[in-house]
Amino acid sequence: MAKAYWISAYRKIKDADKLAAYAKLAGPAITAGGGTFLARGMPAKTYEAGLAERTVLIEFPSVEAAVATHDSPAYKEALDALGDGAERDMRIVEGAE
């Protein structure tokens, strides 16, 4: 079974306090679902049409584990805390293994 990668790009952070509340809840929800944070923060360098925006990369054992984590009650609580505090582009991609 191929690993999966959850990729979030923060297009705009509107409320840092809401983002902090989200992060406090999201981290434990994601790790409980089998996620491992591989990278998070601003890009060191962008190329081509790349945007300088906060990006988070999380590895999961499978697409199913990533989707189940996203759809879990614990992660929903984190999303509720975030509310309209940020505009994000989030996707789950299957690994190339």
TrEMBL record:
Coiled coil: none annotated. Residues 3-95 form the DUF1330 domain. It comes from the Bacteria. This is Uncharacterized conserved protein, DUF1330 family.
